[in-house]
Amino acid sequence: MNEIIIVGSMALDSVKTPFGEVDRVVGGAATYAAVAASLLAPPQVVGVVGNDFPPETLEMLQERGADTSGVEIVADGKSFFWQGVYDYALSERDTLVTELNVFGDFNPTLPESYVGSRYCFLANIQPQVQLAVLDQLNNTCFTMCDTMNYWIENERAALEEVLSRVDLALLNDAETRQLAGMTNLARAAAYVLDMGPDFVVIKKGEYGATLVSDAEYFSIPSYPLPDVVDPTGAGDSFAGGMIGLLAHQDECSTRQLRRAMAFGTVIASAAIEDFSLAGLERLDTSELRRRYDALREIVRFDAMEWEQI
Amino acid sequence: MNEIIIVGSMALDSVKTPFGEVDRVVGGAATYAAVAASLLAPPQVVGVVGNDFPPETLEMLQERGADTSGVEIVADGKSFFWQGVYDYALSERDTLVTELNVFGDFNPTLPESYVGSRYCFLANIQPQVQLAVLDQLNNTCFTMCDTMNYWIENERAALEEVLSRVDLALLNDAETRQLAGMTNLARAAAYVLDMGPDFVVIKKGEYGATLVSDAEYFSIPSYPLPDVVDPTGAGDSFAGGMIGLLAHQDECSTRQLRRAMAFGTVIASAAIEDFSLAGLERLDTSELRRRYDALREIVRFDAMEWEQI
Question: What pTM was computed for the model?
Fold first, then answer.
């Protein structure tokens, strides 16, 4: 099993959905991705938290095999805080509060033990920070980055530099269209590929995700759930599951990328069944296997004997 | 090959999309579905048109093996007319004009040669008309119905009667949620199944479609296209392709239903590459086969050797 470096926010979230409400629970892209990845391979986590971040969360990560020596704890600071509310269908959310706090000065120096990591997920952070992390890594074989509309609008040049250096860009459908400046998703994905990455993964929320490269096109639906409680962290859990499977297999073929997306899908399905990290923490290997196999059955349809038609 | 009865609108459409504009071209749910189905099995078409409907379209249908003796031509009337405009992303449309014309009094008496049809697609029409057609059929083995928000709101009792009598309900995601009065799609589908049909197919536009029964769950993405010109008729082409494949195979197993959804997906992809029926008419057997096989590759991901994880 190969090591993974995961860089991004570690946060406290207050979230309201039609199914409940939680106050200052643990969240953050790197946190979700690290818990997700740890099901498959040990992540090295890079982030910054304040004195209000529960030490139990770092202990839980360590118990799952994660290295948290790259998580800076600022004793006189507060953690990144996000407050949001979801609509009735859980398909849209409004941000009510964003307090960057210690995350506003995030510019990590990697521990020496991290710089040789082979697999890397750069969660949604300022592209300049993503570049600074890439500059410190000396042995990567596969790098993925996420981003958001704010960086597409305000830090385009730095984001383009990131995209020219990563192997895979992870975007939602709106970000893909915005980045490419075109509405047709197949064309927009081709435009993003021209910016540098070998692969684009387009996240479509409840509608699943699509992998595109010059030679590949793969679509996977979401895992059906009767009870979705809180979609927060779904995309980061998906990404963590992807990079976890690639590191576990230590292979970045399209065969493994397709499997990685299925693992990401299954792990994200567990994440959204509860608030904060509770759903992810409950997911065990037997349920992971069961949902993976179920997902294969969900997409299966048989070949035709073409002489008939 | 078994015969199919297709009942629904035959219309003239004026459509504007970001990629062009057409005036009073042939449209209508039954027309799209019949052309689609005719790639696989001969449809018997039931509809009503006015003196402005091009006779060439009926001739084209006959050349493709369709029986149009159930299409009433009202010499002193005008055809159903619809005018609509699509947004920049082709995901929403506004109806500008709807003139029912001869379709307003549509209450067909089936030709004697139709009543023994084994496969039936009741396109989106008043549920009372769908019921009147079902009353006339005496040998069906598989019936599908479509509907729309207007009937869900205004003719709920009749629609419930239809749903209690068909084998498969074809709905888009918004209709499924509206009919069930709940937002979670997995739960909403289960609610619709309780109303009677053995299967629900939820159409999700560019995101594909999902088949649900008590024992089955199958999801298929849309076929990726770099050039979508006009989405009008996509759902009806999908339905026509589905019922066509079932009739061709003369079997309504879930194995064939999954294949039917793949055929529907491929045929719908051809329909939206051009205005009116042009894309469907261009689709030949070799392209149909090529896209079906490509779609299997698009959804493929390999099993895991679980002892590893």
Answer: 0.95
